[in-house]
Amino acid sequence: PPKLTSSPTLPRRSAAAALESALAVITGGPGTGKTATLAAIVAGLRAVGLKDEEIALAAPTGTPAALRERI
């Protein structure tokens, strides 16, 4: 199978695709850009006027909650 690697543009492209949907599922191993993608999605939603309480994040880890506090 091909080796998957993350690039600086991958989170931006992934976020752009996610912003066109009502639901996005972000998966990947360590270092693949999941947190960067999530940050870009939240920034994009804020840019179009959504408030934090209107944005729902769910994950089996504490990353979304921690991210919301940082950005």
Provide an overview of this structure:
It is a single chain. This protein has helices at residues 9-18, 34-47, 63-70. 45% of the residues lie in helices and 0% in strands. The chain is built from 3 helices and no strands. Helix 1 (9-18) crosses helix 2 (34-47) and helix 2 crosses helix 3 (63-70). With 71 residues, the protein is mainly α.
Keywords:
single chain, 71 residues, mainly alpha, 3 helices
- Kindly state the number of beta strands: 0
The number of helical runs is 3
Class derived from helix and strand content = mainly alpha
Shape: globular
The low-pLDDT segments are: none
**Average pLDDT rating:** 79
Largest beta-sheet details: none
Helicity level: 40-55%
**Strand proportion:** under 5%
The radius of gyration is 12 Å
Element pattern in H and E: HHH
Please give the alpha-carbon distance between the first and last residues: 36 Å
Topology diagram in text:
Elements (H helix, E strand, L loop, with lengths): L8 H10 L15 H14 L15 H8 L1
Helix pairs in contact: 1-2, 2-3
What is the compact description of this entry?
The chain has 71 residues and is mostly helical. The chain has helices spanning 9-18, 34-47, 63-70.
